[in-house]
Amino acid sequence: MTQTTINLNADLGESFGAWRMGDDAALLQVIGSANIACGFHAGDPVVMRETVRLALANGVSLGAHPAFPDLQGFGRRAMQLSAKELEATILYQVGALQAMAAAEGGRVTHVKPHGALNNIACANAEVAATVARAVRALDRELILLAPALSALEAAGDAAGLRVGREVFADRTYQPDGQLTPRSQPGAVLHDAPACVQHVLRMLDAGGIVTADGQRLPTPIHSICVHGDGPDAVASAQQIRLALEKAGYQHAPLTALV
């Protein structure tokens, strides 16, 4: 069956106190699902609630974006937590966003780990299983948004969760289907036309297309557009416009998984 519907997601609510990151209000007019920081790598209670309110006003589905407890490092530093501690850390963060959503008349419908936690869970089956176990303990109907062809995707399937498979608009892929490390040349695509071409190539191929041209078949439910760069909103707008011109209908993640 030819795919005709797609979702765009972005990481939002990453401001903190007087410090601001990204243009969430503008990005929420483009995307269909928001991954909202829960205070451990970014965000604070006021920012979380305001982001939830803005997302709901724009018809954008709500997702929790839990991370390692690493505010100073923006959640990008690997941490060694026991399975018990990691599971509780995830429950704590997602639960906080669920409370904010409830206060605004909304509901959290997906969970997407952030930064180093996400990277490790994509490669480490034990960490991935802990993440999936935490999500399942909260609500079996929650969607686990996971990179396609990752250990996190497999763990979500094994746990009986609804799993949304995502690809990244601005990142290239290695032959094993994992993201090219940022330390390597060509890992990040910096201009909107290159991102558009990358996304359309993968959708046309029905899977991930690696940097060396290999096709790795996989369902694609969502495309991650990053919101923290100077051209983030413009790039997201161009990607959505290109998708619509190619015949894709944009929808919240809940409509695809």
What report would you give on this structure?
The chain has helices at residues 24-27, 45-57, 83-103, 115-123, 125-138, 151-158, 192-205, 232-245, and strands at 5-12, 33-37, 61-65, 108-111, 143-147, 162-168, 207-209, 215-217, 222-224, 249-250. α3 links the parallel β3 and β4 (108-111). α3 runs parallel beside α5 (125-138), α4 (115-123) crosses α5 and α5 (125-138) packs across α6 (151-158). With 257 residues, it is of the alpha/beta class. It is globular and about 40 Å long.
List the helices and strands and how they pair.
Layout (H helix, E strand, L loop, with lengths): L4 E8 L11 H4 L5 E5 L7 H13 L3 E5 L17 H21 L4 E4 L3 H9 L1 H14 L4 E5 L3 H8 L3 E7 L23 H14 L1 E3 L5 E3 L4 E3 L7 H14 L3 E2 L7
Parallel strand pairs: 1-2, 1-9, 1-10, 2-3, 3-4, 4-5, 5-6, 6-9
Antiparallel strand pairs: 7-8
Helix pairs in contact: 2-3, 3-5, 4-5, 5-6, 7-8
